[in-house]
Amino acid sequence: MELVADPETQEWLAAGEFGFDWDAGNSGKSERKHGVSDATFEDVFLQPFILAGRIVREGETRWLVLGKAGTKGRGYAVIFARRGNDVRPISCRPMRDEEAVRYEQG
Question: Lesser CB count within 10 Å: N end or C end of the chain?
Answer without folding.
Answer: C
